[in-house]
Write a structure and sequence with these properties.
Blueprint (H helix, E strand, L loop, with lengths): L1 H65 L3 H27 L1 H6 L2 H26 L5 H80 L3 E6 L5 E4 L1 H7 L3 H4 L10 H12 L5 E10 L5 E13 L2 E10 L1 H15 L9 H16 L5 E8 L2 H8 L1 H18 L5 E6 L2 E7 L3 H22 L7 E7 L8 H23 L1
Antiparallel strand pairs: 1-2, 1-5, 3-4, 4-5, 6-8, 6-9, 7-8
């Protein structure tokens, strides 16, 4: 296949070179034809001028000889002198121009050389008239008219020969142009059958192979018009992802399946000429049944038949995202309580604590300890103790605000960071939580009391303090409350 393509390429290059050579040769032929036609015209014009001047000279001589008016004769002689000067100048230009001599063919050059002897005889006789050296005027003028006629006939013969030479050259040029045209046409026909048809077959095979690869691709691939995102092509995986048939897909628009964020990203990519690849785009695809699928999207840009298209690859990462969410939850959430684990909770509280230190807003810390958990574990078993922890944690999760941070600090200890909240407001929230716990205790009618002890501390912005000392201060207050409960029961 590679050798065949190389041979076709060489044939194509050779045919182009030959066609180019034909065009160049036609141009050269046109140049020389135009040059020859211009030269023919120049010589014919000079020959015609010589004939006209010769006729004028004969007429002026007759006027000077036959007119009895001295003034008229003097004027005729003056014109005669000027006409003779013009005749000599034109003859010199015709005979001494080397480009004319090199251009003229043998017959034309022979006629031109003959004209020189006619010219010399005729011009000498005219000079004799101007000098008044004629003896037998009637005979001399008769001879002068005969010599002028010879010279004019010679110029006519030269013009006729040039016309004949030009006609021969034109016929030759026509034959050559016809030959070039036939040869060029032959090359074009040969190029079509030898180069273009095989290349077209190769391209058709390549397109078919590409279509096969397109269809067996393991991910969804969709080709859309960059202007309106109308679907132009889709593979089997794309049909499966969108839950549409091939025919249905070609009548639809990709914007029917993607959210606004992805649509804006595609529009931005399509309108920026120097961007050719877009990777790592993640978004939600809603298939024909309106089921949501999370996809990782890659986009390429290409031009087909003068129009820009987008090649979009979509990989379904729904299960992967769900797994990531599970792993993230396991890494950040305490499994038993549903609160943040200690590591994650401290990181989040640290960020909020730094904001509070910059006087952005208030923050209040609440340290919570469950009452009697050790007694429940020892008396009723750890399963019951676990139920106790989960029940209290559920009440806490549901009782705090969405922006607050709740974490399991360890064992039966929990910490809540009330964000953008002063101590009185935090106390109101904890009192509501305490009432809910009392309701749960009464409803469950457990053989033990369900309760919590907690301590609150709000951050004093002008007092230097670390997050650890902030939590410890709330712990100390909780311990004071717990001791008071024990003393009250005693």
């Amino acid at each position: 296949m590679t050798s065949g393509r190389w041979t076709l390429r060489r044939l194509f290059q050779t045919s182009l070179i030959l066609i180019g050579a034909m065009v160049v040769m036609s141009g050269i032929l046109l140049y020389y034809t135009t040059r020859d036609q211009n030269a023919d015209g120049d010589i014919i014009n000079l020959a015609g001028k010589q004939r006209m001047l010769s006729q004028r000279i004969v007429r002026l001589i007759l006027e000077s000889e036959l007119d009895s008016n001295a003034t008229h004769r003097a004027e005729a002689l003056k014109k005669l002198e000027y006409s003779l000067t013009e005749l000599k100048s034109a003859h010199d230009l015709l005979t001494e121009n080397k480009s004319f001599s090199s251009y003229l063919k043998r017959d034309s050059l022979k006629i031109l050389n003959t004209s020189t002897s006619y010219f010399e005889t005729f011009s000498q006789e005219v000079e004799q008239v101007l000098k008044g050296e004629l003896t037998d005027h009637e005979l001399a003028i008769h001879q002068l008219a005969i010599d002028a006629d010879y010279y004019m006939n010679n110029m006519d013969e030269l013009a006729n020969q040039l016309i004949l030479d030009s006609k021969i050259r034109s016929e030759l040029v026509i034959r050559l142009e016809l030959a070039f045209t036939i040869l060029t046409l032959f090359l074009l026909i040969a190029e079509y059958y030898i180069v273009f048809k095989p290349v077209d077959a190769i391209m058709a095979d390549a397109i078919e192979e590409t279509k096969k690869l397109f269809d067996i691709a393991p991910t969804a691939i969709i080709i859309v018009d960059s202007d309106d995102l109308s679907i132009r092509e889709i593979n089997d995986e794309g049909e499966s992802l969108l839950h549409v048939s091939y025919k249905e897909a070609l009548e639809m628009n990709l914007s029917d399946f993607i959210d606004d964020e992805i649509a804006k990203a595609l529009e931005h990519f399509a309108t920026h000429e120097h961007e050719y690849v877009l990777k790592g785009l993640e978004g939600i695809i809603r298939n024909y049944n309106r089921n949501e699928v999370t996809c990782l999207i890659s986009v390429g840009k290409f031009v087909y038949r003068g129009k820009t298209h987008l090649l979009i690859g979509m990989a379904d990462i729904t299960e992967q995202k769900q797994s990531e969410e599970v792993f993230e939850r396991l890494a950040t959430i305490d499994e038993m309580t549903g609160l943040y684990n200690r590591r994650t909770g401290l990181l989040m509280m640290g960020k909020e604590f730094e904001k509070a230190k910059r006087h952005i807003y208030d923050i209040t810390m609440c340290f919570i300890d469950m009452d009697g958990l050790k007694h429940v574990n020892d008396t009723f078993g750890h399963a019951e103790g676990d139920w106790y922890i989960r029940t209290v944690a559920t009440v806490l999760r549901e009782g705090i605000r969405s922006g607050d941070i709740g974490m399991r600090f360890g064992g039966d200890e929990m910490v809540i960071g009330f964000v953008n909240c002063d101590e009185p407001t935090a106390r109101d929230i904890m009192e509501r939580i305490q009432k809910v716990i009392d309701i749960v205790c009464e409803r469950e009618n457990k053989p033990y009391d369900i309760g919590i002890s907690y301590g609150l501390s709000d951050y004093e912005k002008d007092v230097p303090m670390t997050l650890e000392s902030f939590i410890n201060y709330a712990d100390e207050r909780m311990y004071t409350v717990k001791m008071k409960k024990k003393n009250t029961r005693v």
